[in-house]
Design a protein that fits this description.
This protein is an alpha+beta fold. It is built from 3 helices and 10 strands; from the N terminus they run ααββββββββαββ. Helix content is 14%, strand content 29%. The chain has an 8-stranded mixed beta barrel with strand order 1-2-3-4-9-10-8-7. Strands 5-6 form a two-stranded antiparallel sheet.
C-alpha cells in the first residue's frame, strides 16, 4: 500500500491540527526565548562545575586566611613589642645628698584640693610625689622638702648650695639605690614656675628636688621663689654610702617652709 501523502502544514485548514515542529525550531524562531533558555543552561552548568571543584578542595576553618577579615582584628601582623629599657623601680624610701649633709627618710606626697603639690607635714623629712615616676624610672621624678620652719632649718635648707656634678642617692624599698648627678640648680619666682620643664616628660631617668627660696614675704609668711635642682641618673648601686651627720644651721626666718611648686 502506498502511504498517503503528508498534508502540508501550510495548507492545513480550519479545524485541522498542524504537526508540531521540533522545539529547537520554535526556539530559533523566538530570539528572546532562546536567549533566556541559553542563559539558564549556562548558569546550571557553571553551578555544577563549581560544586564539583569545591568538592575536591579542603574547606577553610573559621578565622583562617580564607575567611573574611574580622573588622576587630588588625589587618596586618603586629611585631612583638620590645622589652622596656628600664624595669620598674621599687618605691623610694630614703634620700642622701653627701655634699650638703642630707640624710632623710622619704614620705609619700600627693596633690592638694587646690591642685598644688602636697608638702611634708614635718620640716625634717622630704617627700616623693607619687604622681611622678619612681626614682630610677624613665621620667621626671619629684622629691620636695621644706627649707625651714619656725623651729629652724629644714631638710632642704642647703639645697641651693648644690652644684653640677654633685651626687644624690635615693634608696629604694628593695635595698638598692639609684644614683643621680646634679646637672643644674635654678631659682624661679613662684608666679613664673616652669611647670612643663620641671614635671614634663624626659627621655631618661631624672630627679628634681624642690624647695622654697628667694625673699621671704612676712605678710604671707611664705617665700616668693622656688629652688629646683635638676639631676640625671648615672648608675645604680646595692646600697648608699655613709654620710656624716648634718651640721648645725643658723636660724632663719620662720614661716611656710615650702610653698606650692607651680603658679
Amino acid at each position: 500500500m502506498r502511504a498517503a501523502p503528508r498534508a502540508s502544514t501550510a495548507n492545513a485548514g480550519p479545524g485541522r491540527h498542524a504537526r508540531h515542529s521540533p522545539p529547537w525550531r520554535q526556539v530559533a524562531r523566538r530570539p528572546l526565548t532562546a536567549a533566556v533558555l541559553l542563559g539558564g543552561v549556562l548558569a546550571m552548568a557553571i553551578t555544577i562545575v563549581g560544586l564539583l571543584v569545591l568538592a575536591g578542595r579542603p574547606g577553610h576553618p573559621p578565622g583562617s586566611a580564607g575567611a573574611a577579615p574580622d573588622r576587630l582584628a588588625p589587618l596586618v601582623t603586629l611585631p612583638a613589642l620590645a622589652e622596656p629599657v628600664t624595669m620598674a623601680a621599687a618605691p623610694p624610701v630614703a634620700l642622701q645628698i653627701p655634699a650638703i649633709g642630707v640624710r632623710t627618710r622619704l614620705v609619700q606626697l600627693g596633690i592638694t584640693r587646690q591642685g598644688t603639690l602636697q608638702v611634708p607635714s614635718s620640716a625634717s623629712v622630704a617627700g616623693w610625689y607619687t604622681g611622678s615616676p619612681r626614682p630610677g624610672e624613665i621620667g621626671s621624678s619629684i622629691i620636695a622638702g621644706h627649707i625651714d620652719s619656725y623651729l629652724g632649718p629644714g631638710v632642704f635648707y642647703r639645697l641651693r648650695e648644690l652644684h653640677p656634678g654633685d651626687r644624690i642617692y635615693v634608696r629604694q624599698a628593695d635595698g638598692r639605690s639609684a644614683v643621680f648627678q646634679v646637672t643644674a640648680v635654678h631659682q624661679y619666682a613662684k608666679a613664673q614656675f616652669p611647670v612643663a620643664a620641671v614635671y614634663g616628660p624626659v627621655p631618661d631617668a631624672e630627679l628634681r628636688l624642690i624647695t622654697c627660696g628667694g625673699a621671704f614675704d612676712n605678710a604671707t609668711r611664705s617665700y616668693l621663689s622656688n629652688i629646683v635642682v635638676y639631676s640625671t641618673e648615672v648608675s645604680a648601686m646595692p646600697s648608699m654610702p655613709s654620710t656624716p651627720a648634718m651640721p648645725a644651721m643658723p636660724t632663719s626666718p620662720s614661716g611656710v617652709a615650702h610653698g606650692r611648686p607651680k603658679p
